[in-house]
Amino acid sequence: QMQGAVFDLDGVITDTAKYHFAAWSKLAKENLDIELPASFETELKGVSRIDSLKKILEYGNKLDQFSDDDIQELAAKKNGYYLEAIDGLSKDDILPGITELIAQLKAHNVKMSLASASKNAPAILKKLGLFDEFDAIADPAKVAHGKPAPDIFLAGAAAVDLKPSECVGVEDAVAGVQAIKDAGMVAVAVGDAQELAKADKVVPTTADFSYDLFEQTFEKANA
Ligand code: BG6
Ligand code: MG
């Protein structure tokens, strides 16, 4: 039986992916003279702040033009744009099905932890009124490697005293699903089935999430 659920935040619990991308697009355009194609949104999902910026600079063939200090400064600027955009976030911004899912997991004594790459995750959970629902939040600043490396999901399971093999990981990002699988966890993903084909189960929307879906996916993967 599934003992734990280790969640990504952005794009799974709330739809902040669009705000991240809007903030990066603004930074790229106004500060870097790089026009990001819409297709870049998928590539940046789950990727840490600094790694995202490096990908953008690489895309614009400008990575070698910026020092580490420049990169820190640009990343901070992007975060400023992002924080402005999410200022009004509230419980109305919890994605469909998530509140019900949390209640079901609790009713079945499934431990819940967060494995977000975002340093803004605790603040966002508070805005959504979900901070107290989680048993633990893994700190992305304390792991050596960001997604697609498994570190943050391993930390998420350890934070609730579980083995990865006892947990289901929940993601919307290609990098995140890779991280879950390399952590040795069962992966449930939301989004495009082709893009996220490495997951054990992909559903089109978070409204499709339920304890039963997670548990059945877990049992099937372990059969
Ligand atoms: C992930 C997002 O959850 O967090 C990425 O999907 C983002 O887009 C990453 O870059 C880091 O977030 P933050 O809030 O620390 O800049
Ligand atoms: Mg995500």
TrEMBL record:
Keyword Magnesium: yes
Residues that hold substrate according to the record: 8-10, 24, 44-49, 52, 78, 116-120, 147
GO terms of molecular function: beta-phosphoglucomutase activity; magnesium ion binding; sugar-phosphatase activity
Needed cofactors: Mg(2+)
Keywords (A to Z) from UniProt: Magnesium, Metal-binding
Site positions per UniProt: Important for catalytic activity and assists the phosphoryl transfer reaction to Asp8 by balancing charge and orienting the reacting groups: S116, K147
Active site per database record: D8, D10
Positions of Mg(2+) binding: D8, D10, E171, D172
Single Gene Ontology BP annotation: carbohydrate metabolic process
Cofactor: record remark: Binds 2 magnesium ions per subunit.
PANTHER family in the cross-refs: FRUCTOSE-1-PHOSPHATE PHOSPHATASE (PTHR43481), GLYCEROL-1-PHOSPHATE PHOSPHOHYDROLASE 1-RELATED (PTHR43481:SF4)
Family: Belongs to the HAD-like hydrolase superfamily. CbbY/CbbZ/Gph/YieH family.
Protein name: Beta-phosphoglucomutase
Organism: Ligilactobacillus araffinosus DSM 20653
